[in-house]
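ingest -> validate -> predict -> emit
validate: passed (alphabet ok, no gaps, 193 aa)
predict: started
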Amino acid sequence: MDYLFALWLGYLLGSIPFGLILTRATGAGDLRAIGSGSIGATNVLRTGRKGLAAATVVLDAGKGVLAVLLAANYLPGWEGVAAVGAILGHCFPVWLRFRGGKGFATAAGVCGALAWPVMLACAVIWVAVMAVTRISSLSSLSAVIAAPLIAWLWGMTDAAIVLLVVAAIVTVQHRANIARLRAGTEPKVGAKQ
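emit:
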C-alpha cells in the first residue's frame, strides 16, 4: 500500500496549480485564456509579469522536491513513485479537469531531489540551448530528455528509470510544441504569441 500513498502524495502536491493561483491572485486573469493556455511558468511570462513567472517556477519545482522528500522520510523506497505522482498531478490535475501544465519545472524539482548532480548538468544544458535558440520548449525538452541518460551514465540506475518515465510524460505534454518546432513556427521567448 505504501506505493499508493506515495503516488497520491505526489499527485496531490503536484496538482496545486501555482501559476493559475498566482495570476488570479494578482489580477492577471485566467491563465488558461492566455497564450498556450498552460498553467506553467512560460505561459505566466506571457502575462508580462516576470516576477510571477519566476515564483511559478520556484513553486512548481518546490512541489516536486517536497513530494520526493516527504516520501523519503515517511515512505522510504517509494520516492520515485512520489516523483512520478507529482508530474502526473501537475500535468493532469483533477481540479482543472485534468488540463494542467507541461511539467518541466516540477520535473526539475523531482530531478533535483532524486539526483541533484543530474539536475545541475541538465540546468547547464537548458541554459546553453536557451542561449542559442531562445526557445523555451526546446530548452526544456533537451534538458528533460538528457536527464535519464546522464543519470544512467553516472550509475544512478534507479533515478534513471524514474527520470525516463518523467521525460516521457513531459515530452508527451510538449507534443504541440514539437509539431511547431518541426514546422519552424515555435515562438521564441519574448515574442508575442
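Residues 2-183 form one domain.
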